[in-house]
Every structure is written in C-alpha cells, then in structure tokens.
Amino acid sequence: MAPRWAPPAPAGLVLVALLALLLPPAVRGDKPVRGGLSGVGAEPEASSAVFPLYGDVYPHGLYYVAMNIGNPPRPYFLDVDTGSDLTWLQCDAPCVSCNKVPHPLYRPTKNKLVPCADQLCEALHGGLTGRHRCDSPHDQCDYEIRYADQGFSIGVLVNDSFTLRLSNSSVVRPSLAFGCGYNQHVGSSSEVAATDGILGLGSGSVSLLSQLNQHRVTKNVVGHCLSLRGGGFLFFGDNLVPYSRATWAPMVRSAHRNYYSPGSASLYFGGRSLGVRPMEVVFDSGSSFTYFAAQPYEALVAALKGGLSRSLKEVSDPSLPLCWKGKKPFKSVLDVKKEFKSLVLSFANGRKALMEIPPENYLIVTKYGNACLGILNGSEVGLKDLNILGDITMQDQMVIYDNEKGQIGWIRAPCDRIPKSAMCQVAAKRGANSAMG
Ligand SMILES: *[C@@H]1O[C@H](CO)[C@@H](O)[C@H](O)[C@H]1NC(C)=O
Ligand SMILES: *[C@@H]1O[C@H](CO)[C@@H](O)[C@H](O)[C@H]1NC(C)=O
Ligand SMILES: *[C@@H]1O[C@H](CO)[C@@H](O)[C@H](O)[C@H]1NC(C)=O
C-alpha cells in the first residue's frame, strides 16, 4: 500500500476538485532551473502567452509555473491544475495555517477584496457547493475548496494584477480574481511546499484562463507540454496549436464539474481489447499519476502481470503499490520499456480518436531502481467511475484544451524545447531564477 493515501472523502463534503493526488516526500532542495530558452522574437499575431514549466512526475510529483502577481509584481510558483478552476496563493490575511512556501506570503489589501455580489464569486460558489451565500452585497467572498487528495484551502477572493508578456511582445497587467488562502492543508505541512499555490485552469468562469479570455488578452485555449525529463512549457491562446496535425476529440460537458473530458474510451493493451466497459476519462494536469476505476485497473494489472518476462520480479517499493525489479537496478524507463506493451485509449466521440500510452507514459523508475506502475486504483481514493489521465500519461505530448471549439487535442512533441515561434515569458523566468538563487 502506498504511503500518504488519504481515505475517500466522506459523502456530503464540498465537491472535490482534482489535483495532485500524491505528492511524494520529495527532495525540495533541487533547483529546477531550466536554461536555453531561445527564439525571442516579435510576432504579428497577438493573444498568446508562453511560460516555462518546472518540476517532474518523479520525484517531485508536480509541474509548476512562475507567475508575477501584484504591484509591484512578485513571482509565485503555482501548481498547474487543469482539474480545478480556482487559482489561489497561500496568503498573509493573516495566515491561520500556511505551509512554508518558496516565496514570501502574498499580502492582500482591503481594496483588493472581491465583493460577494460579484459574478465571479457566484460562479465560484456554484462550482464548489452549488450554493451562493451573500447576505450583503459588499461582504467579502469567502470560499472553501477541497481536493481529491483531502487537501483544502479556505480563504477569500481577491483581485490583483498579473503581469504577462504576450507573444506580440506587449506586456499586459489585467486584474484577475484569485483566492487568498489563509487556512489550508496541502501536501505535508512539515515540509516546504514546492509551490505558493495553485493555478486553476478548468473551464469554469473563475478559471484564470476564462478570466484572461474575458479581458480579451488571450483566446480561451490552454495547452501544456510536460517533458519526460522534467520541465516543459504552458501556453494560453492558440498561436502554438498544431490544429491540422493533432488528434482531436470533442469535449463532453458534465453537469456541475468543469472537468476536461473527451467522454468515454475503450481500453486496449498490446493491441487487444481489455474487455472493460467504456471508461469516462478526464484530463488533469493537477494529478501526478493516472487513475483507473477498479474494473479497468484490475483488467490492466492482470494483463500486465500475464505478459511480463521472467527477468522481472514483483518487489515492494515505498514509492508506489505495484513495482518490479530486474536483474540489475534500472536507471531509466528506457531500460525496461521493451518488457512492456503500449496501452491505447480509443475515444468514441472523436470518431475513434486514439491516444497511445507507451510504457514511459505509465511507468516510473524509482530511486531504488525499480519500475513501478504509475496507473493507480482510483476506487481506492474515492474517484468512483472517473478515470484520470495525470501528468505521467501526458508527458511528451502537447495537450490542448480548446474551449473556443469545445475540443481536446493531443500530439507527440519534444516538450523540453519551447517552440521557436513562441516568445518566452522572460519576466517569469527572471523571477523564478532570482527567487531560487
Ligand atoms: C498584443 O495583444 C494584446 C492582446 O491580445 C493587445 O492588447 C495589444 O495591443 C497587442 N500589442 C501589439 C503591439 O499589437
Ligand atoms: C478588479 O480590479 C479592477 C481594477 O481595480 C476593477 O476594475 C475590477 O472591477 C475588479 N474586479 C472584481 C471582480 O472585483
Ligand atoms: C481497487 O480499489 C477497490 C476499492 O478500495 C478495491 O475493492 C479493489 O480490490 C482494488 N483493486 C485492486 C486490484 O487493488
């Protein structure tokens, strides 16, 4: 049994959002500095912003960006989460319970409070509990958000400027609403958190993406490219989107959650159907691993175990529930890849849009040199019938959430290079480096 798995959420709690379900007790001393950003050059097309990403699936368990917020702008690290809407920062309001975070706590001023009569407050409450409480229109907008991993944040909605450098080399400073979280429990409180907060990129109107679109800064399109070797990039807007080459499936709207889902898919392993019911699939960059519901999980584990060569022995490893060792410790997934077959998801809505999941998109090699299955039993963490594609499965693919056209796309890509055509987010990079140096 893996460590740090909380029991399923009791019924009646605030709706769970999806987020990093497993943050390993990782090395926080690493400096995820990435260099070599190139291709700075003005572009005629406006409306895109590109950010370098930091982090990895293992050992850090998350990918994050540096965003410049406030006036004067200060950098904050935010966990990129396409599985929830609200962006929030740990905040000195004053703080009742905060982790140690990489940067000084954000300090709100009274005039930054968003009143509860504001549409965004209503949308936020609607998305979290379905109920909007606002006794007097000038009251502050309180919120409480809970995640699938039992993490939570309690705070108040504020409004401050985000400094963004666009691909047309303009710098814009829209005022955007986000949470000032003064009481939270995320990850383990004894360690320094990797990030100052969360970047909510779901499809709801509170999402930073929707707000940028409302302010006519970028189109309502977001994409990420998570590198297998760590880092990668995130973009808002559609300038980088390879529309004709990517595989697309229409988004399915679920009634009350702003999850990104292309609907249900059939599961194949090594070219053969696993014979499970179609799976409802959600794309969630806030989850480090992938979760299958009990039935497909069991079918997959049985098929995997049935197909392995004798050179692999099941072994217990504190990192994840199901691991194998070889004759010698593995150094990377490439050492063990040939022992495993690819998975394929076939999405019914996308005229059989296929997503191939090769072994490097479902295995990790731990520091003990074992190969472990990065697809976990979602029923065990209370996800019921939902299947979540987490970071591990989206690595080295550009994944595009296109709310303009209502579709989700993916395409294999080398994610450790920001495309030449993109303007790099110089301000954020400088902020990140100085904050770590
Ligand atoms: C760049 O794009 C933004 C928003 O899309 C726009 O407000 C700004 O005027 C543009 N700048 C230039 C130099 O075209
Ligand atoms: C946020 O602040 C800006 C500028 O101060 C203001 O125009 C806007 O109405 C505010 N938005 C909300 C939701 O309070
Ligand atoms: C998956 O989780 C469910 C719920 O906890 C459990 O009943 C089932 O046995 C688990 N399956 C496997 C293969 O671990």
- Find the CATH superfamily of the largest domain: Acid Proteases
Quaternary organisation of the protein chains: single chain
Small molecules bound in the structure, each named once: 2-acetamido-2-deoxy-beta-D-glucopyranose
Q: How many strands, which pairing sense, and closed or not: the largest β-sheet? A: 6 strands, mixed, barrel
Enumerate the strands of the largest sheet in spatial order, edge to edge or round the barrel.
Answer: 3-4-10-5-9-7
Architecture overview:
- With 437 residues, the chain is mainly β.
- The chain folds into two domains: 16-34 and 44-241 and 416-436, Cathepsin D, subunit A, domain 1; 247-412, Acid Proteases (Cathepsin D, subunit A, domain 1, Beta Barrel), CATH 2.40.70.10.
- Helices cover 11% and strands 34% of the residues.
- The chain has helices at residues 119-128, 208-214, 294-307, 391-394, 426-436, and strands spanning 16-17, 49-56, 62-69, 74-81, 88-90, 142-147, 152-165, 171-172, 175-185, 197-200, 221-226, 232-236, 247-250, 260-269, 272-273, 279-283, 290-292, 313-317, 320-325, 343-347, 353-357, 363-365, 371-373, 375-377, 386-389, 397-402, 407-412.
- It has a six-stranded mixed barrel with strand order 3-4-10-5-9-7. Strands 14, 15, 16, 20, 21 and 25 form a six-stranded mixed sheet that branches.
- The site of one 2-acetamido-2-deoxy-beta-D-glucopyranose (NAG) has 6 residues, from loops.
Write a brief structural summary:
This protein is mainly beta and 437 residues long. Helix content is 11%, strand content 34%.
